[in-house]
């Protein structure tokens, strides 16, 4: 599953990519982790949202409420479940990014391996969003089976949408949008690094 991605460009560049979308002020960061703010295109507007739907948890030891945990990934086969259904039906969004990372290597010494698209310096992943009491607007990234470029490192990957499919994802009926949740079939670049996975 994807727990780290980057958007290494300006909001103005992203707005141009999405055909002049309006930009709301926000504090989205370049390197996005679960619970951090990221830039999302929803309803024709680029806005900052928290990455992950909040899930309430209770301490097993004390029985008291704990800080909510961000659920930042949604398996495409689970979109009919109560946690995701309403957002999938009514609030689909696009998540712009320049690359996403997966952990590679031995446990305790995993490093960051980055994936990008050579023909699209900025590309879009499928997402869903909703307003939350805990964090305000929050989004989750759709996951599907890994393509041939990712499968040796992880068995899942983000649903990457070519530009021709952006409107279908955000505007068409759910059964048509669901057909877009498939492994990416284009070229990808893989950039292995010595950067520790857990370093922040």
Topology of helices and strands:
Layout: E1 5-6, H1 11-17, E2 22-23, E3 31-32, E4 37-42, E5 45-51, E6 53-58, E7 65-71, E8 73-75, H2 85-90, E9 92-97, E10 99-104, E11 111-116, E12 123-132, E13 136-145, E14 156-158, E15 160-161, H3 166-171, H4 174-178, E16 189-196
Parallel strand pairs: 2-5, 5-13, 8-13
Antiparallel strand pairs: 1-3, 1-10, 4-5, 6-7, 9-12, 10-11, 11-16, 12-13, 12-15, 13-14
How is this structure best described in words?
With 200 residues, this protein is mainly β. Helices cover 12% and strands 43% of the residues. It contains four helices and 16 strands. A hairpin with a 6-residue loop joins strand 10 and strand 11. The relative contact order is 0.19.
Superfamily (CATH H level) name: SOS response associated peptidase-like
Structure annotation, total helices: 4
The count of DSSP E runs of length 2 or more, i.e. the number of strands, is 16
- Report the CATH topology name: hypothetical protein yedk fold
How does CATH name the architecture?
Alpha-Beta Complex
Radius of gyration: 17 Å
Strand/helix succession: EHEEEEEEEHEEEEEEEHHE
* Overall 3D form: globular
């Amino acid at each position: 599953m994807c727990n780290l991605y980057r958007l290494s460009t300006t909001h103005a560049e992203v707005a141009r990519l999405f055909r002049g979308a309006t930009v709301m002020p926000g504090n989205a960061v370049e390197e996005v982790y679960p619970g951090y703010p990221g830039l999302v295109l929803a309803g024709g507007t680029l806005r900052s949202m928290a990455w992950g739907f909040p899930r309430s948890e209770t301490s097993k030891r004390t029985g008291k409420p704990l800080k909510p945990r961000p659920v930042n990934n949604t398996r495409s086969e689970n979109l009919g479940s109560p946690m995701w259904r309403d957002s999938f039906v009514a609030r689909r969004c696009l998540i712009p990014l320049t690359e996403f990372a997966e952990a590679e290597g031995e446990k305790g010494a995993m490093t960051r391996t980055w994936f990008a698209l050579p023909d699209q310096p900025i590309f879009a992943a499928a997402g869903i969003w909703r307003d939350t009491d805990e964090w305000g607007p929050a989004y989750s990234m759709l996951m599907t089976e890994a393509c041939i470029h990712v499968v040796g490192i992880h068995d899942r990957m983000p649903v990457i949408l070519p530009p021709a499919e952006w409107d279908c994802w955000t505007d068409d009926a759910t059964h048509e949008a669901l057909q877009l949740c498939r492994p990416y079939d284009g070229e990808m670049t893989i950039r292995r690094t010595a950067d520790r996975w857990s370093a922040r």
